[in-house]
Amino acid sequence: MLKKIVFIVLWISVVSCDTRSVEEKIDNLNGYWTISKVETNEGKTKEYSFSSTVDYFEITNNKGFRKKVQPKLDGTYVVTDDVENIVVKVENDSINLYYSTEMDQWKETLIASEANKITFLNEYGNKYTYERFTGYLNETHGEKEQ
């Protein structure tokens, strides 16, 4: 019982210390991201050191999209035709992303949003952590427009 109380107090302290606005957390999503880790609801963790595809997010006024792109060594990207439309909603103090494609719909909750790291929790309890993609050869081409 004491452990639960301590955990709850610590969790409230951490959450209440986050002074970044909802808008800033959502704005952090914009840009190129590479998956770094997946933690399943069963407690298994898979870490990624390299991925040939990168997720590109573009969100304005709580609407936008996510696309898979393949970075090239020259700093350009091969862009697929696939797109996942996104609607962002703030619900019960959570930032939820509602995705839709022609074939499916799903929801993820943004549980961490920093300039260089984001984490989502999906409907099945799996956590996906991404790091900002800065390119294969230099530290700036990850910021270029598509």
Description of the structure:
The chain has helices at 2-16, 22-27, and strands at 31-39, 45-47, 54-60, 63-71, 77-79, 84-91, 94-100, 105-113, 117-122, 127-132. β8 (105-113) and β9 (117-122) form a beta hairpin. It has 146 residues and is mostly beta strands. It has an eight-stranded antiparallel beta barrel. The protein contains two helices and ten strands, in the order ααββββββββββ. 14% of the residues lie in helices and 46% in strands. The radius of gyration is 17 Å and the shape is globular.
SSE arrangement:
Layout lengths: L1 H15 L5 H6 L3 E9 L5 E3 L6 E7 L2 E9 L5 E3 L4 E8 L2 E7 L4 E9 L3 E6 L4 E6 L14
Defining key terms:
mainly beta, disordered C terminus, 146 residues, 8-stranded antiparallel beta barrel, 2 helices
- Helices and strands, in order, run as HHEEEEEEEEEE
Mean pLDDT: 85
Estimated structural class: mainly beta
DSSP, total strands: 10
Task: Give me the oligomer status.
Answer: single chain
Walk across the major sheet and give the strand order: 1-3-4-6-7-8-9-10
Biggest sheet descriptor: 8 strands, antiparallel, barrel
**Overall outline:** globular
Gyration radius (Cα, Å) is 17 Å
Give me a quick take on this structure.
The chain has 146 residues and is mainly beta.
